[in-house]
Amino acid sequence: MQSIVILGGGTAGWITANLFALNWGDKDIDITLVESPDIGIIGVGEGSTPPLKKFLELIGTRESDWMPRCDATYKVGITFRGWSSRPGFDEYFHPFLCQADELIVPAFFHNSFLRRQGVDLDGHPSQFFIEWELAKQRLAPVAPPNFPFEMGYGYHFNSGLLGEFLREWAEARGVRYHQATVTDVVLREDGYVDYLKTDTEDTIRADFYVDSTGFRSQILQQALGVPFESCEDVLFNDSAVVFPTEADENPEPQTLATALKYGWAWKIPLTTRFGNGYVYSSKYVDHDEAEREFREHLGLEDADIEARRVNFKVGRVREHWVKNCLAVGLSQGFIEPLEATALDMVQETVARFVESVNKGNFTDQYRDEFNDRISGRFDAVRDYIVCHYRINTRTDTDYWRDCGSNEKISPSLRQILASWMQGKNITDELERQKLDAYFPNVSWNCLLAGKGIMPTDEQVRPGNELANKYDLGEIAKFRKGCALNFPAHNEALAALES
Fold first, then answer.
1. Which of 476, 214, 197 is nearest to 332 (CA)?
2. Cβ contacts of 89-93, under 8 Å, gap ≥ 24
């Protein structure tokens, strides 16, 4: 492999370019990214999970290098609001765990487990995590040297600006950048990609191609004919309407995911604005009504702000690496914006591809193994996202009732839910299915406990001394004590620019 062409830019394309340059920059491999000047990026994904932090550190960037340029803020987790009708569970917090949480997570597991056994204990997840305290107090997860615990967090950012930053970073490390509109993908007799034809009749050739062309999937799906396996039967959302609103002077370091009538709305804080979007199903509500509902939710009924509409398809391709082409980003699949998994999937795809190519001495020896692994990851993420909808307890619209009664869920998810409802330790089930590598045990427990899938106050009995071994007051004291080490969110962001 002497040359690679990445077709399509955006965050996915430039993450790929940077990881290739990092791993193969000394291999005399020509890496070129080709991007059309006429095709914009979707730019909806403006939140991340902690792996993005690891990626940016891996390629050698500092937060002061990129965060101010990309309007970025810190993200310690997600608050889910309005997904449950059960008293006391109107909202819960899904944290990005830090090392200090390990000291109090056992208390959460203990309380939530016994609550499912019918013992009168508080098993609501939010109060057991330091990140919840940081979010409430609007503190940045930037620990001083005297705080002896490693912090894990993600970011919010302007996706267009981050793509530009990653382009400059990649170019400085030898990646070529070429603007051209590709009109045709020409195949060889054996079905491999031969070359790309542009609108100026030029040809672009390489030994290997990466398809980062978004939902069009110009190479993998269109030219190579790789089937797309939809999961619209379990994930109903296919549309979004997007609005910017004014920024907060000291924003919360979290994403807010609020359930509405036909889907959910995100609120993402950037330094220059809030990113707001309503993800909904066009099968249950038309676009105009969805926009009207969202404007009302944001208090923008009479505001002269133009809405941007986005359509998407949920699912994945049957194979991600086919012949001499790898698909990344939206061209390989999408499991909707909830939980912000898209960039994590890009990173995992590229990292595992590099690993497979290196292990196979630059052959396709491990291609099947790679495809199975990435598809397995997609399916695991899909099930975790589906679970949010399947266990909702709203009954106010057909949308939510159909989500909550959907029996088309996978056998894997069905077994996890059965284990939880039977009062078992779902850690055992997650380990049996080898799913804890995708979403950890804590995340599953937060999801299920946070939506109130446990006995009500009327159904529980008092616990003995052993059951009440954790003092929630002491946990709150520890949580708040840890929080004293962290600066205000806006102060930490300002410090990055100094």
1. 214
2. 89/124, 89/450, 89/451, 89/452, 91/126, 92/124, 92/125, 92/126, 92/446, 92/449, 92/450, 92/451, 93/125, 93/126, 93/129, 93/131, 93/132, 93/135, 93/254, 93/446, 93/450
- Selection from 309, 239, 314 nearest residue 281 by Cα: 239
- The pLDDT of residue 189 is 96
The whole-number pLDDT of residue 39 equals 65
**pLDDT bracket for residue 84 (50, 70, 90):** very high
Contact 147, 485 (CB under 8 A): yes
pLDDT digit string (tens) for 164-191? 999 999 999 999 999 999 999 999 999 9
End-to-end CA distance of the chain: 44
Give phi and psi for 327, each to the nearest 5.
Answer: -100, 140
Q: Is 427 exposed, middle or buried (0-12, 13-18, 19+ CB in 10 A)?
A: middle
The amino acid sitting at 362 is F
Q: Which residues pair with 242 in a beta bridge?
A: 277, 308
Pairing of strands 263-269, 255-260: antiparallel
Q: Identify the pLDDT of residue 445.
A: 94
Distance CA 101, CA 95 (A): 10
User: Cα–Cα distance between 30 and 61 in angstroms, integer?
Assistant: 23
| pLDDT score, position 340 | 82
Written as six digits, the tokens of 128 are: 């057991």
Contact in structure between 79 and 89 (CB atoms under 8 Å)? no
Q: For strand 193-198 and strand 182-187, is the pairing parallel, antiparallel, or unpaired?
A: antiparallel
Nearest one of 94, 119, 91 to 392, comparing CA atoms = 91
Active site residue 283: no
Per-residue pLDDT, averaged over 51-55, amounts to 95
Are the CB atoms for 25 and 174 separated by under 8 Å? yes
Task: Say whether pLDDT at 478 is over 70.
Answer: yes
| 278: three-class secondary structure by DSSP | strand
Torsion angle of C-alpha atoms 99, 101, 107, 109, degrees rounded to 10:
-80
Mean pLDDT across the stretch 339-361?
94
DSSP symbol at 153: -
pLDDT at 498 over 90: no
- In the set 53, 75, 267, 451, the catalytic residue is 75
Question: What are the strands, taking DSSP E only, across 2-69?
Answer: 3-7, 30-35
Enter the pTM of the model.
0.94
Q: What is the CATH class of 3-72+156-230+314-379?
A: alpha beta
Q: How many CA atoms lie within 13 A of 224 on its CB side?
A: 31
Q: What is the DSSP string of 174-234?
A: T-EEEE--EEEEEEPTTSSEEEEEETTS-EEE-SEEEE--GGG-IIIIIIS-PPEEE-TTT
